[in-house]
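Protein modeling request. Please complete all fields; requests missing the sequence field cannot be processed.
Requester role: graduate student
Desired output: 3D structure, token encoding
Chains: 1
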Amino acid sequence: MIRPMAPLMLTALISASSLACDKPGATERQKEEQAGAQVTQAQNEANRQIQNAQAEADKNMAGARATFENSREDYRHNRIKDLNEFDKKVADLDAEAQTATGTRRARLAASLPGLHAQRAAFVRDMVTLDSATAETWDQAKANLDREWDALDAALDKAR
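Delivered output (159 residues):
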């Protein structure tokens, strides 16, 4: 009886041992799959970080653009206000030139056309501020400030 059972036991033992052992290369394949999954996960995380950084950069750029536009508009508003005050003073000088006599009339008649021409040039240059970029803004503003100072000085001299 032991003899017929021996082959049966031997077969069971071999079957059990073959089930317990991995097939050759299965462990390596599993490790490759894990590494591939880790690479995919790392790529997905990197892409997410890139998208977040791009969104943050876009948000910062939009804020900077808005700040620049507000600065430009504030500057234009102040210069228009200054120009309106200038126009009132020049209108007073124009009226005075009509009633003045002698050298005062001659001096006003000589200076007023220049003031009007300078004002017209200033307004033309002020319109170009609308097309000034953030890179050219500082230079354009500085040029306009110099023109304004010269225009204001010419008005003071004419008075």
